[in-house]
Amino acid sequence: MAAPAIARAQGQEFTRQGLYVATFEPDAGANLKLGRQAADEVRERIEKLIQGKDAQVISKADALRRIPDLTFPLDSVYPVPVIETLVRQARGDEFVVGRVARRGGTFQLTGELRLMRDRGTRQPILASAPKLEAAADQFARAVAAARAQLVPQRRCANALMNSQAEQAVQAARAGIQAYSRGAFARACLVSAMRIAGAAASDLLAESRELLAIDSTSRQGLEGAARALDALKRRDEAAAMWTRLIATDSSSATLVAFGIRGLMEGGNAKRAEPLALAAAAEHKDVMELQRLRWQVTFENRSWARAVEAGEALLATDSIAASDSTLYLRLVTAHRANGNVLRALELATRGVTRFARDSRLYALYAEIVRAESDSVLPRGLALFPKSAELNTLAARDARAKGRLADAAEATRRAVEADSALPQGLLSLAQAEFDLGRPDSALVALGRALARGEDSSLVAQFALAKGNALLRAAGQTKARGDYARALRFFDVADGVRATPQSRFLRGTAALQVASAALREAPQEKDRALGCALAREGAATVATARAGLEAGQELAPDAAKQYLEYVAQLEPFAQRQLATLCDGQAAPATTSATPSR
């Protein structure tokens, strides 16, 4: 049966706790034997005082039985983290650590009761007497008296876990009533008051009561710091946050917590040296690297901010996926005097976060202010920079220099094959220059490289539509055929009723022109080729118009009637111009529209 179930069966509110007494640390120059003797005396007396109550003292034999693979002697002196590991392995819940000294004719025992479930606070214990046995008896009685707060303290902690802050406050006050100097009960009271939204002055008073008992209590230091922040007493608050960090400056988690507290309270200046030192000590803790960036940026320490931001951009995929990092890092570089890097980052950021209006506005501002002087210098220094060539392409396009824009875009794509929408930009540049066939080649490369197929389809459909309208003015078969090739790409990548209908429309125009031109061609081979083209595109026209007729039912009906006239005409031309490869049709008239 599990421990909680046993406790319920026996009518206990909580399971019985395991209490371990570690070997006391002897005074400098004293023999370790004195520390062992002091711990043994205290352990024996505590066991008698709490016999049959809510705790069980873990003897050395119990510890050895519970930790069969123990590789170090139990009766040596160890630092608290090692003792915590030992207590956890022995399935203990509370432990006592202490020091023993002999001053003249008096034995002095100083130590504390600690809880595995609340490692941020300690309960100080003091005792002194002419004989070691008497001092140990005082110490043990003080431990037993201090434990009177623990049941109410557990009720308080459970209430907090259940989001019952008011009940937690009541339970904690009951613990303080049971033991007036109860550090654990006061620590839970401070936490409960903070969660319950108590007045800052009341929270500060209770936090100071706790710190008067345990000056290193993390709950007390945090409670005081937050209360002082609320009261706008920033210098005093900063001192409390700094003391909190000092309780364990080796803990990256605690240091980060304290630095965030300083920053939230308006003490970023005080937080900066701590953040820099912590980030240097814990290079692999990304949270501290982010804090270094945040605090240096907030303090406008631009050189340090640039260094921290660039490091995040290179190593932190989460931060690098946030457009705010680009926005602020561009600002930092610009303020630090490196306009070229600011321009390059802004260009990269706008390409990557196309929908971030803040980033685009900053980019536009830099371009207006700096492009004429900085951009040429940047391209001279970094001719293969994808970002700078992209910016040069945009600048050239805005000034109407389309050939320069196309060339700069080509260089950008060559510099970075993974440049987002790079090949689509190249296709646009080629199209702007009146080179639609080259634009189609760029679209094919974009698909091969895995660019967003929906964007490729939209681009091809829009350009095909523009070419179809232009062909309506020239009536040239080649112009219609060029539009058809764009519709082929759009429909092949992502078919829609619109792409199918437009593809059918363009194919119908190509077929009609080819079949008109075929009989007029003096070269019989060329005439046959035109007849074959016309027959093939008639089939394409029917397929497209039928698949997309929901888009424009009336127009599709009219076009399909014309297709029905073209089909037998195409077969007759094949038979006539291609050496009887198709059966002759019943009529010979050219269909009219």
CATH fold name of the domain at 13-150: Rossmann fold
Give the percentage of residues in beta strands.
5-15%
Return residue spans where pLDDT drops below 50 for at least 5 consecutive residues. Answer: 1-11, 582-593
Q: Any idea what the shape is?
A: elongated
Q: For this structure, what is the CATH homologous superfamily of the domain at 13-150?
A: ABC-type transport auxiliary lipoprotein component
Protein name: Tetratricopeptide repeat protein
Organism: Roseisolibacter agri
What is the topological layout?
Layout: H1 3-9, E1 17-21, E2 25-26, H2 32-49, E3 55-58, H3 60-66, H4 80-89, E4 94-103, E5 106-115, E6 118-129, H5 132-146, H6 150-161, H7 165-178, H8 183-196, H9 200-213, H10 218-230, H11 234-246, H12 252-264, H13 268-281, H14 286-298, H15 302-315, H16 317-320, H17 323-335, H18 339-352, H19 357-381, H20 386-398, H21 402-415, H22 422-432, H23 436-448, H24 453-474, H25 477-493, H26 497-517, H27 524-547, H28 553-577
Parallel strand pairs: 1-3, 1-4, 2-4
Antiparallel strand pairs: 4-5, 5-6
Helix pairs in contact: 2-5, 6-7, 6-8, 7-8, 8-9, 8-10, 9-10, 10-11, 11-12, 12-13, 12-14, 13-14, 14-15, 15-17, 17-18, 18-19, 18-20, 19-20, 20-21, 21-22, 22-23, 23-25, 24-25, 25-26, 26-27, 26-28, 27-28
